[in-house]
Each structure stands twice: as structure tokens, then as C-alpha cells.
């Protein structure tokens, strides 16, 4: 049996207004992901995902919030533009996910269990020196005004360089950097996240 490229499998799939309505109802942490078996797209929430598995995100609640401003609230226009974009990019997104290292996926899952939910489609980049970069944008279950930018760089096969930026609304609070290996226990910065968020100003307002 001949291999069917992902583009061909998803060429008839659509991201509809109903999917966007469902995504909006899920709130922060809501996601639209690739549904492999059905060759379609489905709505989920970050908390229901096991990020160690090959979940491919095509759109997030945070992306929708931004697009509602850009498209002046026109969900039909957003759905049409997103469907065209997904048809062009699904193959690439699947490949990028397959090449995301296990250390980054393990970290995604650990943060998810701590209540830091993916809220936008991950961004991927490969540098001229073949370093692979991944950026995830997360929101906190306990207070959605807090967001986390998780950036990783895989320069060597045995470890992962991680930079984490914590924001409260539009204000940058702190940055942590850490190099993780497959033998690293829970990253140091994850133990500091909750205390840092609690000590941030204006959180009791």
C-alpha cells in the first residue's frame, strides 16, 4: 500500500465556525489538534493531553483571542483563513512534532500536571547550525493573568537548554535558564514558579 502524505489526508479537512465556538467555550488552555484517525481536526483542552505523545496543535485559545481582534470578531473569516493555513502547513507541523525531542515533551507534560496549560500553537525553528528551537506559550490554571514562555534549544543530543519567561498580564516578572538531561529530576524552575506567582504584585486585586 502506497504511503499517503499527510497533506493529501487532510486536504478536505476544515476548521469550522463550530470548532472555533467550541474552542472559545473551552477557555484558556483550549486547543485544536490534528485528529489522525479521522484525518480531521478536533477540539481538546491541554489538561486532557499527554504531551509525551505525538499531539500536534494547530491552533489555541490564545491564538483565537488575537485573531478576534485582527479579524474584528468575524469567525467565518477566521475559520476560512485558518483552514487554508492548516492545509498548507499540516505536513510541516506533523514533522516538527515528530522531531521535537523527548526532553521537551517531558517538560511540557510536567508543566501541564502543574497546571500550566498550552494556550497557543507551538513555534519551531531550526538554526543555521542545526540547533532546533521550540517555543511554547502557556497559561496558569490558578490565575489566567499569568503566562509562561517556554523556549528550548537542542544543540546536543544528550541535553536541552531551556529559557523560561514568566509574565503577569503584560509585565515581565522573571526569567530562568536551565540545562536539562535525561537524568534531571523535576527542573529547578518548576519548584519556583508557584512561589514567584504568589509573590507578584497586584495578584490580590
Distance between the termini: 61 Å
Contiguous low-pLDDT stretches (5 residues minimum) are none
Instruction: Indicate the mean pLDDT.
Output: 91
Helix content: 25-40%
**Which structural class is indicated by helix and strand composition?**
alpha+beta
Give the helices and strands as they follow along the chain.
HHEEEHHHEEEEEEH
What form results from the Cα inertia axes?
Answer: globular
Strand content: 25-35%
Cα-atom radius of gyration: 18 Å
Number of helices: 6
The number of E-state strands comes to 9
Query: Biggest β-sheet: count, sense, barrel?
Result: 6 strands, antiparallel
Number of structural domains:
2
Organism: Nocardiopsis changdeensis
Protein name: DUF2470 domain-containing protein
Topology:
Elements (H helix, E strand, L loop, with lengths): L5 H4 L7 H10 L3 E6 L4 E6 L11 E4 H10 L4 H24 L3 H12 L2 E3 L4 E4 L5 E9 L5 E9 L4 E10 L2 E11 L6 H12 L6
Antiparallel strand pairs: 1-2, 1-3, 4-6, 5-6, 6-7, 7-8, 8-9
Task: Explain the overall architecture.
With 205 residues, the protein is an alpha+beta fold. The chain has 2 domains: 6-98, no CATH class; 102-199, no CATH class. Helix content is 35%, strand content 30%. Strands 4, 5, 6, 7, 8 and 9 form a 6-stranded antiparallel sheet that branches. Strands 2-1-3 form a 3-stranded antiparallel sheet. The relative contact order is 0.12. The mean pLDDT is 91. It comes from Nocardiopsis changdeensis. This is DUF2470 domain-containing protein.
